[in-house]
Amino acid sequence: MNTSPLIHQDRGGPKQALLEVRDLKKYFPVRGSFGAAGKFVHAVDGVSFAVAKGQTLGIVGESGCGKSTTARLVAKLMAPDSGSMVFDGDGVDEFRGIALKDFRRNLQMVFQDSFASLNPRLTVAQTIAFGPQVHGMSAKDAERLARDLLMRVGMEPDQFGARYPHELSGGQRQRVNIARALAFDPRLLILDEAVAALDKSVQAQVLNLLQELKAERQLTYLFISHDLHVVHYLSDQVMVMYLGQIVEIGPVERIYGHAMHPYTQALLSAVPSMDPAHRTMSSPISGDPPNPIDPPAGCRFHDRCPKAQAICQSQAPRLMVVATDPAHQVACHLNDPHAGHGNAPSVEYAATALNEVSA
Amino acid sequence: MSTPRVSIKDMGLRFTGKRTVSAVNQISLELAHGEVLGLLGESGSGKSATLRALLRLYPEGRAQVSGQIRIDGQDVLSLKGRALEQYRGGTVSMVFQEPGVAFDPVYTIGQQIVQTIQAHAAVSNQDAAAQALEMLERVQIPQARRRFDAYPHELSGGMRQRAMIALALSCKPKLLLADEPTTALDATVQIQILLLLRELQKEMDMSVIFVTHDIGAAVEVADRIAVMYAGRIVEQGAVADIVHRPLHPYTAGLLASSVGAANKGQPLQAVPGSPPDMSNPPVGCAFALRCSRATDICRTQVPPVEHKDGRSLACWLPLNTDAA
User: Fold this and answer.
1) Contact B263 A233 (CB under 8 A)
2) CATH classification at residue A163
3) Does A83 contact chain B (CB < 8 Å)?
4) Is residue A285 part of a domain?
5) Is residue A198 part of a domain?
6) A212 and A76 share a domain?
7) A229, B43: Cβ pair inside 8 Å?
8) pLDDT digit string (tens) for A102-122?
9) Domain of A327, in residue numbers
10) For residue A7, is pLDDT > 60?
11) Pair (A72, A133) in one structural domain
12) Distance, CA of A206 to CA of A174 (rounded, Å)
């Protein structure tokens, strides 16, 4: 196995997706009374997607929709119940594929809680140099790398290198986390609510840094957030999750301009308007997200959906391509002329729309 | 108009102990009947500390509140004993950010509201229960009768926050202090709670101080916005004025750094640096270190608060002065 250089090569060319995830599933068992198992939290339930090289895939959804579990499954921090991943053409942790140790060097993660994700007993410079040393870099080289990275994320190494995490502000700690993630020169960076805990003015600084780093190092981002503004700003592709499943996925301008799923539409209109003359007058959807232990039958969104009909309660919609844009997929009976939803477009309309696209 | 419902003059808050921190310095606020003030600021700017001082939640030995606070003419800082107990919850009440922590986990929601009502008025158990149930219905908790006997952990986040609001309003306070009530909630639930607060505020003719770090949420509920930075109010004015014509560079920076569709693909105009350490505050304007317009006077002297056209501002070199 090749361990010494921390350099990764592009293999499949730009057309090949950097990461492909197929049918990922994770159920957590729930203890009933007196420790009796039986029920499961359907945290991630059949999620498939691909991230193209150099792109940012934004994952949005309410709390409990499985965004973070998806991130942890992708990073192999927990084992999925089923599903597989392909990293630049190689099966992850499979026979003749990419070994787990190499995969992890290609992929790094930045977490929401900047304090909890740093070792309180290591200085900033030690934290960054730690990983490369484990992977065989000499102490001297690792220290030089740490200094360079600190400089790159906007922290003076002489001033900050010897400090401990509790001596830094939230924004500075998150910069250290980013520097540590970059120490392996990864190709994929998973950002799990990485800017959520920061103040607005500091958040803007970190977002700028992330944009610069992405251009400089040809990084690919998996950006998880509940903040729709930030996802809009940063992402090329957006994936909307609800109760462990993908309800809509597509290019950012399609999702924000022509959202097809009633849930995506509701999420977007729940964002405060920022205009005192046009305040939100009514709530787009009522109620809290339902319990992922017993997800509703049929479409999981049907009990909060303003457009639900009988078919939605009995049959779960599949993720299907939208007729007007092949890159845009949505899981809603309204998109499927054959599903039997009263308000779905007719078969003829869908056919002509598809012809227009292919023409 | 008659006297304002809330009038705060030169309020300061100092924590003493191993080190002294001036969390709040010389803030002045006025609130009319039925007015909603959005108190906006980053973490550590003293916005929550202001609310807690208003409710007299800090122990007197460790925290010194100076200045003057009057609510409906009543001097809050001189309240003692029974009067203070009546004041907390009766005159002024608070909704906290984490309803899961603010509720007592070993009593049901209903019991806690009943206790609150009975602490403030001589009401029979039955009447208090009826009132509590009515409050739960008023905050639009579905199946209120069932939730009445539920423990806090049995409710979802949004429902708990509704119950928290019901608890806070159960004694019909004149002033409601809302400390980031929607920060821990999802966007779809946040908008429901904001709409509910707006509705209840109109119905009960309360004044509300709504603390938040999210300008969007403040714009949804507030009539006026006060922007806090490092323990001072740097700018105050009507919502539309603050959002469309900010005068203080910090307010402008906050607005510019909020992300949206408009600035996609371009770098954001971030305010450099981070807020100052309050145990060692800078001389002069606290924002001078991060301000691109700062001159010598900003670094040496604290700017006074000036009032003009219903706005107040503390800045030596305000923006948009010709436009205002």
Assistant:
1) yes
2) 3.40.50.300
3) no
4) no
5) yes
6) yes
7) no
8) 898 899 999 988 899 999 999
9) 260-270+298-358
10) no
11) yes
12) 8
Considering only CB atoms, A200 lies closest to which of B186, B192, B213, namely B213
Taking only the tens place, the pLDDT of each residue in A148-205 is: 999 999 999 999 999 999 988 888 999 999 999 999 899 999 999 998 888 888 888 8
Cα–Cα distance, B53 to B55 (Å, whole number)? 5
CB contacts, 8 Å: B142 with chain A: 287
Residues A266 and A226 in one domain: no
3-state secondary structure chain A: CCCCCCCCCCCCCCCCCCEEEEEEEEEEEECCHHHCCCEEEEEEEEEEEEECCCCEEEEECCCCCCHHHHHHHHCCCCCCCEEEEEECCEEECCCCCECHHHHHHHEEEECCCCCCCCCCCCCHHHHHHHHHHHCCCCHHHHHHHHHHHHHHCCCCHHHHCCCCHHHCCHHHHHHHHHHHHHCCCCCEEEEECCCCCCCHHHHHHHHHHHHHHHHHHCCEEEEECCCHHHHHHHCCEEEEEECCEEEEEEEHHHHHHCCCCHHHHHHHHCCCCCCCCCCCCCCCCCCCCCCCCCCCCCCCCCCCCCCCCHHHHHCCCCCEEECCEEEEEECCHHHCCCCCCCCCCCHHHHHHHHHHHHC
Inter-chain CB proximity B270 and A228 less than 8 Å: no
Which pTM was predicted? 0.85
Q: A293 at the B interface (CB within 8 A)?
A: no
At A175, list the tokens: 């910069």
Asked if the C-beta of B258 comes within 8 angstroms of chain A's C-beta atoms, the answer is yes
Average pLDDT over residues A53-68: 91
What is the number of domains present in chain A?
2
Is there a single domain that holds both residue A58 and residue A96? yes
Contact B195 A233 (CB under 8 A): no
Whether the CB of B194 is below 8 Å from some CB of chain A: the reply is yes
Of A199, A276, A282, which is closest to B43 when you measure between CB atoms? Answer: A199
Residue A227 sits in the same domain as residue A311: no
Please check whether residue A240 lies inside any domain of the structure.
no
Residues A48 and A183 in one domain: yes
Domain boundary among A220, A235, A250: A235
Q: Is residue A101 part of a domain?
A: yes
What ipTM is given for this predicted complex? 0.81
Do A266 and A216 have their domain in common? no
Q: Are A320 and A336 in contact (CB under 8 A)?
A: yes
Question: Is A265 in the same domain as A207?
Answer: no
The CB density around residue A229, as the number of other CB atoms within 10 Å, is 17
